[in-house]
């Protein structure tokens, strides 16, 4: 057995990624356990409070399941599900120490995430293969990342979970 091919989620990896997330203008960092061509996408995302995830959905090609599964390993996030007009349909608190640890969204569900604790670690699972040009469909009425409007929106969304 070749142990060099074993992939681990350990404290060293988390510490490195959390530092990168804190230093990133996006306030988040992901790490893929898969390569883009694989049929199962599995990766962690480490989010810092203030990160902006532009509302989006995932629509997959025929024969590919478009679900998205989130497991909070550390910290807490607010999941906001939206209609195709950008109206908030529901909010869900998902946290490692709370009542809900994981959530799975069906295909074509518009959503965004709000980081509620420093170094929030999320394990995400989706069916692949990954294609960056078709992976996300954004709600056009929401601002782009890095804008003042986006930062203000995050502050408003955080209030749903306080």
Using brief descriptors, characterize the structure shown.
162 residues, alpha+beta, five-stranded antiparallel beta sheet, three-stranded antiparallel beta sheet, 2 helices, globular
Notes on the protein architecture:
By secondary structure, the chain is of the alpha+beta class. 15% of the residues lie in helices and 35% in strands. The chain has 2 helices and 10 strands. It is globular and about 50 Å long. The protein has a single domain, classed as Jelly Rolls (Sandwich). 20% of the residues are buried. The strands form 3 sheets. It has a 5-stranded antiparallel β-sheet with strand order 1-2-9-4-7, covered by helices on one side. Strand 5 and strand 6 form a beta hairpin. The mean pLDDT is 93.
CATH structural architecture: Sandwich
Summing up helix and strand content along with how strands pair, one would put the structural category as alpha+beta
According to CATH, the fold-level topology is Jelly Rolls
What share of the residues does DSSP label as strand, in percent?
35-45%
Overall mean pLDDT score? 93
Summed up, the domain count is 1
Q: Main beta sheet, described?
A: 5 strands, antiparallel
Instruction: Quickly count the helices.
Output: 2
Envelope shape: globular
Count every beta strand, where a strand is a DSSP E run of 2 or more residues: 10
Succession of helices and strands: HEEEEEEEEEEH
Low-confidence stretches: none
Biggest sheet: strand arrangement:
1-2-9-4-7
CATH homologous superfamily assignment = Jelly Rolls
> How big is the Rg?
16 Å
Helix content: 10-25%
N-C termini distance:
49 Å
- CATH hierarchy class name: Mainly Beta
Quaternary: single chain
């Amino acid at each position: 057995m070749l142990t060099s091919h074993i992939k681990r989620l350990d404290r060293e990896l988390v510490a490195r990624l959390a530092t990168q997330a804190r230093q990133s203008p996006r306030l988040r960092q992901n790490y893929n356990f898969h390569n883009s061509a694989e049929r199962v996408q599995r990766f962690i995302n480490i989010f810092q409070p203030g990160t902006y995830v532009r509302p989006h959905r995932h629509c997959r090609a025929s024969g590919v399941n478009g679900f998205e599964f989130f497991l909070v390993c550390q910290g807490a996030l607010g999941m906001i599900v939206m209609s195709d007009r950008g109206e908030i349909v529901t909010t869900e608190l998902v946290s490692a120490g709370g009542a809900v640890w994981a959530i799975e969204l069906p295909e074509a569900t518009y959503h965004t995430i709000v980081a509620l604790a420093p170094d929030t670690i999320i394990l995400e699972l989706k069916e692949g293969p990954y294609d960056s040009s078709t992976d996300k469909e954004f709600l056009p009425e929401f601002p782009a990342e890095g804008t003042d409007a986006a930062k203000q929106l995050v502050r408003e969304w955080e209030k749903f979970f306080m």
